[in-house]
Amino acid sequence: MRQHWGAKHALVIAAMHETPARFEENLRRQLEWASRHFRLIGPDDLSSLWQEFSSDSKSGSKPALLFTFDDGRESNYEIAAPFLESFGARGIFFVVPDFVGRTGDDARQFYYSQIDVRGLPPSDSPEVWTPMNHEQLRDLASRGHAIGSHTLSHVRVDGLGTDEARRQIVASAEKIFSWTRKPVDCFAWPYSWSAIDRSAWKLIRSTYRFCFAPCPGTVDTSSDSPHLIWRNEVESYYSEAEYRFMYSGLVDPFWASRRKNLRTRLHAE
Questions:
Q1: CB atoms within 10 A of CB 199
Q2: Which of 132, 158, 213, 223 could be stapled to 136 by a disulfide with Cβ–Cβ 3.0 to 4.6 Å?
Q3: Would the pTM count as exceeding 0.85?
Q4: Residue numbers of the domain that contains 76
């Protein structure tokens, strides 16, 4: 293990996407391993996490680990959420409101035109492109998970005009709230670490309490901001060697220049 894993200020955020049934056993083993090396937390812990880790009483405790899931696939509801609950944890589900509730060919078309735009052949498995519906989101929220925004329709948030920025950033939270009747505190922008600009970040800060970046790194709660939280992509299908590497922090130095660049770009120093 890396030495910083035992630091009282360390927070690791895992960012997953689909969690289909065929990778259920992989995910179970990953969570079992993570629960031995981390303190699994939930979204309710975020509000006090920075103050909590500043306490000397936490020195030497396990670093915290929070699981997040992007896009709002139904497999997150059926597979990931129950697994997290079995370990006493809760997650943040970053959904795309314009994707939520779509079915059949409509869901598949939206997924491959807005979410997975790599140009790969569409999957025949509905698990890949079937989203959660409104009732499932409401149920997750009632069970202690958080529903966050991943923009209204899964777009880059850099270069947006004023009206479109408000639609993607503010209206998305309003739509989620209309379904869950729970505060929408968390936002994660899609695509790359650089797909954001200063004006969008200011609007995100004024709308949400926490902003998550698609930029790997271990969060240091003594110096990092809750308005710019690093996330490590760790998928359910990763092998043990792959997920242990991503949780280890060994990737942090490689991304250090990008984290610095992002802080400078957003004036977030």
A1: 16
A2: 132
A3: yes
A4: 3-266
Length of the chain: 269
CATH number of 154's domain: 3.20.20.370
**Predicted confidence (pLDDT) per residue in 71-85, tens digit:** 999 999 999 999 999
Residues 180-231 have pLDDT tens digits of: 999 999 999 999 999 999 999 999 999 999 999 999 999 998 889 999 999 9
Task: Tell me the backbone φ, ψ of residue 71, rounded to 5 degrees.
Answer: 90, -30
